[in-house]
Amino acid sequence: MSVRVFRGSVLSDMKYVAFLRAINVGGHIVKMDHLRSLFESMGFADVETFIASGNVIFDSKSKSPNTLEKKIEKQLQQALGYEVKTFIRTIPALAEVLAYPCFRRAELVEAGNILHVGFMSDTPTQTAIKKLASLADDVNDFHVDAREVYWLRRTGAGESEYAGGLLEKTLATPVTFRNVNTVKKIAGKYLR
Q: What's the CATH class of domain 95-180?
């Protein structure tokens, strides 16, 4: 068994990132200090938020991301009065997401291109993946790997007509998207 080192100290708890959907969009405004206090009241330690779009980093003794997702969703529903779909990943899992070769490097670094990572609850079916692939065009391209979907937007080629809701419907599983730069910054705070 390997020991993970974060911020120079050995942790007995596991470091998790919760990507929350429906925070500070569509009229659902939640102050980050309130969101942190909600996570602390659930018994999580070292709770931090990263930008005001529903990214919460925390420590937990639980080794089950699925159990954590259900617990957080239930507590946030009670506290906020609406569903907040939750997608949990560990810091090492985020490192794998960032290292995954979803598109050619030349495309990823081309001026104007933007890569979004979608965190999903489940791996979509092959039928759903084919439907998503059929949406690819000069502006948008997609790649699915397990519970992540990579969405490359070539903004130099025009404006995308797609939004997360359409992609979620196409994939037939809940998903929340983050700009890859947000994911890099979160992971970079903890990876050595």
A: alpha beta
- In this structure, are residues 176 and 85 in contact, taking their beta carbons and an 8 Å threshold? yes
Q: 10 Å Cβ neighbour count for 70?
A: 13
The DSSP string of 47-85 is: EEE-TTTTEEEEEES---HHHHHHHHHHHHHHHHSS---
* pLDDT tens profile 109-131: 999 999 999 999 999 999 999 99
5-94 and 95-180: identical CATH topology: yes
CATH 3.90.550.10 fits 5-94, yes or no: no
pLDDT, residue 25, reads 81
User: Given this model, what pLDDT does residue 190 score?
Assistant: 86
Burial bucket for residue 173 (CB in 10 Å: 0-12, 13-18, 19+): middle
